[in-house]
Amino acid sequence: xxxxxxxxxxxxxxxxxxxxFKLDKENKGYEEKWYLQPLKDTIPMPVPASYNDITxxxxxxxxxxxxxxxxxFWVPSGWTDKRIVLRVGSAAHRAKVxxxxxxMVEHKGGFLPFEVEITxxxxxxxxxxxxxxxxxxxxxxxxxxxxxxxxxxxFHPHGYKTQEYLFDFxxxxxxxxxxxxxxxxxxxxxxxxxxxxxxxxxxxxxxxxEIEGVNCQKAVPKITIIDRENKVVVEGSGxxxxxxxxxxxxxxxxxxxxxxxxxxxxxxxxxxxxxxxxIGIRTVKVEGNRLxxxxxxxxxxxxxxxxxxxxxxxxxxxxxxxxxxxLLKWIGxxxxxxxxxxxxxxxxxxxxxxxxxxIDEAPAVGMNFFNKNEKVFCNERVNEDTLNHHIQVIRExxxxxxNHPCVIMWSVANEAATYEDEAYEYFKKVIDEVKKLDKxxxxxxxxxxxxxxxxxxxxxxxxxxxxxxxxxxxCGKLELIEYQLEKELLRWYELFKKPVIVSEYGADxxxxxxxxxxxMFSEEYQCRMLEEFHKVFDKLDFVIGEHVWNxxxxxxxxxxxxxxxxxxxxxxxxRQPKAAAFLLKRRWANLKRK
Length: 594
Ligand code: GCB
Known about the structure:
45% of the residues are buried. This protein has eight helices and 30 strands. It has an eight-stranded parallel β-barrel, surrounded by four helices. A six-stranded antiparallel β-sheet has the order 3-2-4-9-6-7, with no helix packed on it. Strands 1-12-5-8 form a four-stranded antiparallel β-sheet, with no helix packed on it. By secondary structure, the chain is α/β, with parallel strands linked by helices. It is globular, with a radius of gyration of 24 Å. The model has no long low-confidence stretch (mean pLDDT 98). The protein has three domains: 139 residues, Jelly Rolls (Sandwich); 94 residues, Immunoglobulin-like; 296 residues, Glycosidases (TIM Barrel). A hairpin with a 2-residue loop joins strand 18 and strand 19. The site of (2S,3S,4S,5R)-3,4,5-trihydroxy-6-oxo-oxane-2-carboxylic acid (GCB) has 11 residues, from loops.
């Protein structure tokens, strides 16, 4: 799926801003066809944003079910002979889109974009009404999965229910990413796949262009690769081919060089459509116990993140996005994982531009009761339907992100119950799909299982493991970390002979709490814990990365162990550094390993 970009032949119209919003308290609006008329009794709601924290009303914050959004737009008169597409960056978790009362498309999955051609549904002479129904219920067929708990006891009123899910971050809901209209010619470039390679000093670009629409049979794509100085470095033509850039600049964190891959489709010698894709020439490979970027070992320094901020919730916000990248640069990180779901296109674009490496994660989190008596991979829970949806999400994810040089690895899940026998078959199918669609990037599953119990260690290219020694186990016992962690990591390597990334480690820390000797929740404890982990990483050659949990404090569902959210941030939710930020900045500046 091509990100909507303006070119000579393409226009993008932003529909973001303040929309009308209505809570569907009894979830009856679809049945009553609310979309046929303008919504009544609405309140203003920003798009993109989670709706949960925008008002003072707990009923809106905690709503389970449907909500309605509505806006209106005019179609520019210059678009009469164009193909008009509506694109929703994401809506959590299911959406139905109506244009002028007509149902156009539905989508399941809250963290990926979807689009629909609406050329025949719009009016050029009148204002058009756009209605989006969003539903936030998570069930076992969703990613992430969840379930509704109905209470049948004397402590709860009749009919009381809660949305349950087995991950900690808050189930923020709403239209989370930009909504745009865009226009393309009627014969249009529908997809581009670019696979970069390196031969000596030269960059190799294998490409494939897909064209659809009225004259697609006649259309011939012309390809031009342009450097940053706007110089043409190579040209070609045809729907697929291999191009060579002599003396290419390779994309890497210290030089995130992007070329422009311009496609022009010619129909009877005339330019019909133009699309410009930023590309980076780089390779990623796992060799022995190393991760190689452009043939050289790379050590990952960074974080597991979240899309999360005050008031906006999970809504994309360019202010937060740029601030976060500035903090990543300031602290000396070179990477992050999109824990626990794919992030906004705009964030991926920034990572390309700024040279931050990304482990791109599917929204498969919360597939674990952390209780071996409660099975997850079974008919009533994560089953064939979940698997089919997982595979569908993998397809959408790779289609969206395949061309990003920043994406160096796919993560198919976080902390699933991989100790269950059934997990092997399940993840084999998911990983086979990834490998079928992308033969160039390594694949991982982020583990909480121990090396001797996981059933999936043989399926992945890199072992990613989350570990909380001295936090969730042996609380406060910093002195045990080195002993426990070293033993465990050595075992991972002994069993699987694959490079290991510690993809989560960290301590909840309330900014401003101090204690010496350190106790849990103090800034000193967070620092000491990180240092103990680092001692072990620095001894073990096969450890190829450290991702602290978390970049910033973030909102969670309420629980006795959550003090207004998860406080494992190295930055506060307002993006101010805790003491650990300065520790990491010093460490990462001086780290010898590359
Ligand atoms: C984990 C999860 C992460 C949680 C974290 C924690 O293992 O992967 O989503 O936020 O632990 O702090 O509990």
